[in-house]
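Researcher: I'd like a structural prediction for the single chain below. Treat it as a standalone chain; there are no partners to consider.
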Amino acid sequence: MRIIHITLEYLRERQPPVVRFLHITILCLVLSQIIVSNFMGFTDNGEVSKKTIEYYGTSIHIGTGLFLLPIAFVFIYIELKRHGIKYFFPYLYGNYSQLKEDLQQLKQFKLPEPRAYGIAAMVQGLGLGALTLVILSGLTWFLSWIYMAPWADSIKEFHELLTGLIEAYVVGHGGMGLLHLLFQLKNPKNC
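Model: Treating it as a single chain, here is the predicted structure.
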């Protein structure tokens, strides 16, 4: 369980308590959403399936999504207020200097320290963007479904497509985090 201790210590060093709490809460809620989405079901006319597992899966997914909505937006607001948009998306402003340094370090098989405008910040920005897109598309689908809009199925498909962004992000970001922690376990002075 040393890896859990190192993970929590790493987050304590780099994130204020509120951000750390929101980060972990969002991770848990997003993972549960991905899992529960496999148990959703609707009838041909758009009603929630009466099959027990699909009924509860759909209800839990919708309820958790509505719960996740304000938590995610508070997190995104706090992060943008703390760092500004340029921190996460420096390439939109023509700033590539830290990215070049980070890539040089990676070429030498060294993990770059998380810094403003660097790879880690850009990856975080991609996560904030993916989270925003998935939540907004889920909310749009939910509202169009509730009001029986004719385009509800198209919005649902779009939401499902965007969910792939979050899934890829969880795997990529989580993998990079684990890689960083493994380097730290192997050589604590380099990370």
